[in-house]
Amino acid sequence: MSQIYVDTIKNRTGGAPTLSQGVVVSAAATFSGNVSIAGTLSYEDVTNVDAVGIITARSGIDVTAGGINAVGVVTATSFSGSISGGTIVGTALSISGIGTVSDLSVKAAVETVSVASTSDLGGGKVIIECDATNGTVFTHDLANGTVGIVSLRNFPVRENSVTTYSIIFNQLPTTPAGTGNTTAATGIGTNITLTPSGVSGFTTSARVATASTVTLSTTANDVDIVTLAVHYNGSGTGTPGNYRVFATNNSGYRFGTIGF
Question: Domain tally for the chain?
Answer without folding.
Answer: 1
